[in-house]
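agent: user wants the structure for GL16469 from Drosophila persimilis. delegating to structure tool.
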Amino acid sequence: MNNLFGPGMENSFQTYSDISHEESSGGLVAFENLESLDSIYPAALSSNIGTLNSTACGRIDIMGTIVYDSAPYLYPFIIEYSLIGAVVLYVMWKHIGRYPGRMNDEDLEHRLEVMLSRRAVAMAQQARSGRVDCVGSSKGLFFGLLLLVGALICLILFFVLVRHQQFSLLAIYLADASHCILMAFAILAIIVGFIRVKNLKFRCEEQSNLNDILLRISAFGLFTYSVFSIIAGSLKVLESEPSLLVTTTGGVAVFQVILQLLFIADVSRRRVHLPEHDRSKPGRQIVTFLLICNVAMFAIYTFEAQKVFANPVQLDFYGFVPWSIIQRITLPLCIFHRFHSAVTLAEIWKTTYKARLE
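agent: tool returned. relaying tokens verbatim.
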């Protein structure tokens, strides 16, 4: 066989077999590379398609995490809106068909004439004046703004210092002390206000069921929040100074809210009836001061107490999950109480010291 083909043919056959083997092995490698590319190309292709689609649709992430970060500050408004809606419906239900058989056409016409005459007098006075009467509110406005600026500075310093371990104790002192001092000034102002407004005419028929119900329900939430803080601080009051400060702040908050509810209920039912009262506006400075104090405390509850780590004493006593639940239930009512108190005081500032046609 070797002689038949010769050495040349044998070498050529061997060379051809080697080439065929190399081609087959090369084809196998190429096939394997093709399979690997098939596994790579779909991901790259889908990535390119996603990029093209996002570019074509103009999807640009502008908001980022703003919605997520602002959720703790926005969710109380849902609870507040639901509370207002429920109370408004209750007041409507209470007054519909209250005295259906005691009112005839003559009484309705008389009441309508009285209302129209009072409205005409009020519009005439407003047309003559053409400006907001701010008499008797400059001092209260000045001192209130001074406390508001101080509270905001303490609030900013709290958020700066509480993130550093070496300054966390100072941050707690700063936050609770500023809150306690603010409420102490409010208590003194309320006591002075009771003395100043006692000369105004008291009219028991002047009342607002809506404001009274909203203030009382929201005050219950603030009482609950303060009581939980007092419990957490009082059981460790001898171990650390922050616990004593937390207990004091909670007690002062309860006392201040009770006095403020009584003051609002009293002043909202009083009216100016003497010319000298119309000129001096007794108690209006106090109303202005309390209005701005409630705005400052509204900011404190909104921005400081929304974070769980902002209350280390309560967090250490109750734990993360229980204290988070307590905050989520009570804090919206605390925020709403301060906000609605400011709104009610603004209404008192406007209506109580305006002379009316009797």
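agent: one observation worth passing along. The radius of gyration is 37 Å.
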